[in-house]
Amino acid sequence: NNRHWEECMEFAVQTARRAGQVIREAVKLDKCVTTKSSAVDLVTETDQQVEELIISTLRDRYPSHRFIGEESSAAGERCFLTDSPTWIIDPIDGTCNFVHSFPMVAVSIGFAVKKELEFGVIYHCFEETLYTARKGHGAFCNGLRLQVSKEKDVSKALILTEIGAKRDPETLKIFLGNMEKLLKAHAHGIRVIGSATLALCQVATGAADAYYQFGLHCWDIAAAAVIIREAGGVVMDTSGGPLDLMSRRVIAAGTPEMADYIVQQLHSISYERDDHD
Ligand code: IPD
After folding, report:
1. Does the keyword Magnesium apply (predicted)?
2. Residue 28 CB neighbour total at 10 angstroms
3. Residue 255: in which H helix or E strand, if any?
4. Residue ranges for the binding site?
5. Pocket of ligand 1 (CB under 6 A)
């Protein structure tokens, strides 16, 4: 089966590149923008077209596999993992960036078997950089091996986060309070780049020391989790427990010490699980 997953990953790479080309063309055109869970949770026709392109391409080749996609879920499809080989897809991660032509947009394709993540492919559409990892085989960016940062001390850390779609006063207070705590601990800086997957890739390359977020989705985490782990990093739940792909929250870091420190600082923001009924 290992050989088979390797072939699946090669096909995922080709498919992500094709999708990225569609996104690069579409960003130049007028966009038809609508909203989903909140006024800042955006979707465009391109998100839907690209998801359709990716899923139909993969389904033609692997008809027995299952698919979880951001836009299929938004359209009401149930989102849950079974033991079957399952593709977990974000056609455009960084939709708000895409809408503004802010050049941080990625295609993310993760793959799980028996509920275990096997490989991840993330394609930065504008830089044309490709992040890949397969369980047990290392993580790469454009073919070069990735290694996370070894930093343990928050006062020497560059930390990334994302805001999430909820913007009510209580949520904002917790979000800003979490940032304040890390700034008071003298983190070198905090960045919000508008794409959870590309932010997570920065942890894999060692450019960032940690990432945390409440409110992201399984399709934002799946591919990146394999890439970070294969680059030597840790990906866990914000409680400090094991990662729960459907829980809408994550901490990733180069070292367990850094992750544990951030776990201690964060107040939780609750979002409805991806696998809710
Ligand atoms: C979103 C982006 C955003 C993050 C959200 C994600 P989308 O993905 O990664 O930066 O804050 O939580 O859902 O909607 O652009 O695919």
Report:
1. yes
2. 7
3. none
4. 70, 90, 92-93, 220
5. 70, 90, 92-95, 162-164, 194-196, 215-217, 220
